[in-house]
Every structure is written in structure tokens, then in C-alpha cells.
Amino acid sequence: MRLNGKTAIVTGGASGFGAGIVAKFVAEGARVMIADINGDAATAMANEIGDQAIAQTVDVSNSASVQAMTDAALTTFGHLDILINNAGVTHLPTALEDVSEDDFDRVFNVNMKSVYLTARALVPHMKQRQQGAILNVASTAGVSPRPRLNWYNASKGWMITATRTMAVELAPDGIRVNAINPVAGETPLLKSFMGGEDTPDIRAKFLSTIPLGRFSQPQDMGNAACFLCSDEASMITGVAMEVDGGRCI
């Protein structure tokens, strides 16, 4: 029960890594808002979990939607201890000059602008309480980029830098900011990373780049997130922890 009594928002919490983080946080005693653009999936998951979870439909790239999410969380929970910026998108593997402007804008808004919007909405509350933990779900793509995912890679590199600069600025206010860097995992984005096609040959090619020989699983991210957001990690801030089976070595 390392998160007993804690409250958290997990964006993109209804599937993939977000769902793994939600499950772990609930198991460790936290009350969690499952915030997702797929409101039906968030509601179904919250209903399955019970009293420890609530659902919220959110578009993390939209300031009004993020503010509505914040207001709903504070109204229900009274305060917020933990913010997980997990929602993310990618473009299909494409030559960097051929990625459409619409795809670029979507990656920019969901992966990058969202971190600014959630900070603008929630950092004042955390500053007032002089405590809080923010965790950004970045990627090994921001450390060791793969070809043809250029603008996705760049967005995750931005997220890692944002994590570090947020950590430095917010430390005097008792707010810790960290990131985790998953390798490609068993999530809805996996097929996109592989070019829109999920075949045994393509999977084998991906797995050959991961020394431990398997994809990241949602529970891997849940375990890492739980530690970094718990009081056990009270001396850790500004870290981008690779949870990648050795991919970045």
C-alpha cells in the first residue's frame, strides 16, 4: 500500500501503459482518475475497479478540456498528489520530410502541448500544498531514436527536457518531476510503430534490439511509476528512467 491515501490523475489511462499504471496505483491504495479521450473505455474501467477510480473524458491537447479534468479531480478528491502525463500518439514510420503537417501538429499537441496544459492547470494547486509528484511517460525514442519516427522521437526528447527543467524549477516548492522511458510495448501504439503492420517477422526485428528479449508490458510501467511517485523516491527528481530491457545500452 505504498500509495495509500494518495490521489492521482492518469491521462491516457484507459489502455496500454496508462491502464497498467492505473491498475498498479489502485492496488497500492491510491484513488485514481482515469482520464482518456475514449470516455466509454475510461468509464468501463472505472466501473470495473469500483470506488477507487473515477472516469473523465479529456482531450489533453485542449486547454478547456484539461481545465475541466482538473476541476473534476479536485472536486471529487479534494486535492491531487500525483499527475501522470501518459497520453501520447505517434505518426506512422515515414521519411521525416513526408510526414503531413496534420500528423505533426497532432504529435506536437498530444505529446508536448499537453504537458504544458496540465502543468498550467495543476502546478498552482501543488505549489499551494507544497507537495506533489508529476511523472511524464516519455520514450526510449527520445534517447536513442529510430529512423522514420523523427517527429515522434523529437516530441519525446522534448518531454525528457521538459521533465528536467520542471524538476529544477519546482523542487523548491516540494514538487518532484520525473519521467519513464518505455521501449515499444504491448499497447495500441505498437502496430503504428511497426508501420501499421504487426507480423511475426517485424516483431522479431523489433525484439532483436531489446537485450532482455521482450516488449515493455503495462505492468512494467505501473511498477516503475509507482516507485517514482511514492514516498520511497522522495529524493529522486529530474530523472528519466529507462524501462526498456536494455534497449538504450
Q: Which percent band covers the strand fraction?
A: 15-25%
Ranges where pLDDT stays below 50 over 5 or more residues in a row are: none
Largest sheet: 7 strands, parallel
Please tell me what the overall shape is. globular
Q: Could you tell me the mean pLDDT?
A: 95
Structure summary, number of beta strands: 7
**What is the CA-CA span between the terminal residues?**
33 Å
What structural category do the secondary elements indicate? alpha/beta
Helix content: 40-55%
Alpha plus pi helix count: 8
Kindly list the characteristics that best describe this protein:
alpha/beta; single chain; 249 residues; 8 helices; seven-stranded parallel β-sheet
Can you put this structure into words, describing what you see?
The protein has 249 residues and is an alpha/beta fold. 45% of the residues lie in helices and 15% in strands. The protein has 8 helices and 7 strands; from the N terminus they run βαβαβαβαβαβαααβ. The chain has helices spanning 16-27, 39-49, 63-77, 101-129, 150-170, 190-193, 200-207, 218-229; strands at 7-11, 31-36, 53-57, 82-85, 132-137, 175-182, 240-243. A 7-stranded parallel β-sheet has the order 3-2-1-4-5-6-7, with helices on both faces. Helix 1 packs across helix 8 (218-229) and helix 4 (101-129) packs parallel to helix 5. The longest helix is centred in the middle third of the chain and has 29 residues, at 101-129. The radius of gyration is 17 Å and the shape is globular. The two termini are 33 Å apart. The mean pLDDT is 95.
